[in-house]
Design brief:
The structure holds 2 protein chains of 2 kinds. Chain A is built from 7 helices and 5 strands. Chain A is of the alpha/beta class. Chain B is built from 2 helices and 9 strands; from the N terminus they run E-E-E-E-E-E-E-E-E-H-H. Chain B is elongated. The N terminus of chain B is likely disordered. The chains are: A alpha/beta, B alpha+beta. The interface between A and B is medium-sized, with 27 and 31 residues.
Amino acid sequence: SSGINAEWPLRPGYKLYFEMAVPMLRTTLTLTPSATRGMATLKDIEMRLKSVKNMKKITSSMKMVSAAKFARAERALKPARAYGTGAASLYEKNDFDTSGKDSVLLALSSDRGLCGGIHSNVGKMVKAAHAETPITKAIIVGDKAKAILVKVIGDTFLSCFNNVGKKPTSFTDALDIAEEVLSHDYDTINIVYSKFKNIVSYNTEEKPVPSLESVESNAAIYVYDEVDSEVLRCYQEFTLANIIYHSMKECEASEQSSRMSAMENATKNAGEKIDALTLQYNRTRQAVITRELIEIISGASALE
Amino acid sequence: SSGINAEWPLRPGATEASSTTFPLTFGSPYNAVHDNALVKQVDLPSTTGHFGILPHHVPTIAILVPGTISITNEAGDVAKYFVSSGTATIHPDSSVQILAEEICAVADIDDGAVRAGLEAAQGKLSSASSEADKAAAQIEIEVYQSMISAA
């Protein structure tokens, strides 16, 4: 549906409500006879009321489903965070070069929408980074990010992953993505993902991960004992998969919590709309009755 | 093992290593067994052999092989876990991160299932055709054998 100006200061849920309601309302309005004096007929309002009530049921049940998925995602995030922070500790405690010219962008999102600004924030961050230093290679996870970014950096796509978001991400998913990333040459990977803060907020962040070559070429790594190239290669590959897994778990928690609050807003707005429409319906019904009475009475008095 | 490099500053708020304990993060993607917990000693199986970690161990990066890890906690109790492969990092500030793809407590290993798995893997090795299949079957056999010796 077109025509929704994104700059209108509508509450988040309203945008969703209008996006879903406008096509339904347009159909209802064209099917009913034109109203007298430009006022909506009783039938019009009745149909609108019915559609908004249905919408409220849908958004309310989506909210409950998201709440359940969020509880599960948050529980899974706790060990994933310890795991991912442990994995990234080598890069945090040492300063490896992540400013490499040859960097691969890994954008993490999912296939499903109706989750507030999750996907568009990832898109915004990528577009801003692209404006600063043009992106030459990108791997996109999730159809939503792909749709947003294909117009901007579509020619840089190395590969895209979908089927993300239906089931909780497992470590094997992260392994698949890591394998794909490692099949290309690069200096740094920049992972753009949504980091979970709390149930009402998340931050879209960019996390750089150095490549094997960046790490090997830095003298700091040789502080560590028993480092030969085979050990380092295995270590880097496993650590990359771990960091990707952690980032995907953060995205999952952020997305479910964001969807929960978006659906709650939509349900609340639908409820308010139902109240307003019910009032309008009753007023219109009373006006119709009054008009009929007036016609009858003036018809009767004309006969006298 | 040689002493800690005194120039490396600890991150503010990091659990510091004392002379008897060091912070350990030990977990799998699904289960964080220890998150920056203070422990006394860890013995782990790596590609370069089985070795033990005490406070102020030399900074090391190691790859784990499937085997048993024993962790001695602050109170002195020893806990044993069987791990699949993974990585182990000992930082100059004495903190240790051991990350494995799968972890299970040795007590949870079902002997019957392990023996059945070992027989199946040996069958796979004898019927394997390609080099990759043979290597995979060989790895399976080694893992089951180390599970048997762990329990």
